[in-house]
From TrEMBL:
GO terms for molecular function: L-iditol 2-dehydrogenase (NAD+) activity; quinone binding. Keywords: Oxidoreductase. It comes from Maliponia aquimaris. PANTHER family: 3-OXOACYL-[ACYL-CARRIER-PROTEIN] REDUCTASE, SHORT-CHAIN DEHYDROGENASES/REDUCTASES FAMILY MEMBER. The keyword Oxidoreductase applies. Pfam families: adh_short_C2. It comes from the Bacteria. It is an enzyme of class 1 (oxidoreductase). Its EC number is 1.1.1.14. GO terms for biological process: fatty acid biosynthetic process. This is Sorbitol dehydrogenase. InterPro entries: NAD(P)-bd_dom_sf, SDR_fam. Belongs to the short-chain dehydrogenases/reductases (SDR) family.
């Protein structure tokens, strides 16, 4: 791994205390990037930052943030700039899911998922872009990267609100790419399928609770058998390469794209 590939990249990552957010933060830092880890769970985010700093490549800080609050997004951007001099990449990874069948969805379920998965992404993009615009144009593009999902391509009856939120993520990626192009800001994203993270582990349990699956682990087994061409679930390491590509200069001429990392699910 090239310890200098991402040198000079100062990156804010939301939802960075665990799962894909933490894995990407460590992967970017191994290649020389500086990372600000934003999360409600400051202790876990700080533990990730401590590991990064101990490794001695890129630098890391951790900030406590509620991604659904504009002020917290602005504060996380400001902390990134204070620590590293400027911000040139925002990775909006925070997300959650709480399955319900269509007729069981209520306002609380809708608001929870839409606020964290879609409203927070919009706020993060906007606050990060404000700072990038204020910094002035560079000879490279600034980058906003949105974490989408297979759920924006595959309607799933048990997670209707989650699907809706990820369709919103796709729209933010497309519209942001158009709206921010004049400022030399690109907007891209990646859409995982089944990634073994705390989010999916909780979803697996919740699907049993609502009666959609009979046992824990059945959701994984059914999807691998029926939907995936690569016959295994994925792990955060399977996403890291694509995420690093979107951060790196190799993707400088891309914008408005959502790359699927789904084991072939979209072929169905």
């Amino acid at each position: 791994m090239d310890p200098h590939r991402l040198k000079g990249k100062n990156i804010l990552i939301t939802g960075a205390a665990r799962g894909m957010g933490a894995a990407n933060a460590e992967h970017f830092a191994e290649q020389g990037a500086n990372v600000c880890l934003g999360d409600l769970n400051l202790d876990e985010a700080q533990a990730v930052a401590n590991r990064i700093n101990a490794a001695g490549n890129g630098k890391a800080i951790a900030v406590k943030m509620d991604v659904t609050k504009r002020a917290d997004n602005a504060a996380a951007v400001a902390a990134t700039v204070e620590a590293f001099g400027e911000i040139n990449v925002g990775l909006f990874n925070a997300g959650l899911n709480k399955p319900r069948f269509f007729m069981d969805i209520d306002e609380d379920n809708w608001d929870l998922i839409m606020n964290v998965n879609t409203k927070a992404m919009w706020l993060g993009m906007q606050e990060t872009a404000k700072q990038m615009i204020a910094q002035g144009k560079r000879d490279y593009p600034y980058k906003l990267i949105n974490v989408g999902s297979i759920a924006s391509r595959k309607p799933l009856v048990d997670v209707t609100v989650y699907c809706t939120s990820k369709y919103g993520c796709l729209a933010l990626t497309h519209c942001g790419a158009i709206g921010l192009a004049e400022h030399n800001i690109t907007v891209n994203g990646y859409a995982p399928g089944v990634v073994v993270t705390p989010l999916w582990e909780q979803l697996d349990k919740d699907l049993v609770d609502i009666g959609f699956k009979e046992r824990e682990g059945q959701a994984y087994d059914d999807i691998v058998r029926d939907a995936l061409q690569i016959k295994r679930v994925s792990y955060p390491k399977d996403v890291q390469g694509t995420a690093a590509f979107l951060v790196s200069p190799d993707s400088d001429y891309m914008t408005g794209q959502m790359i699927h990392i789904d084991g072939g699910w979209c072929i169905q």
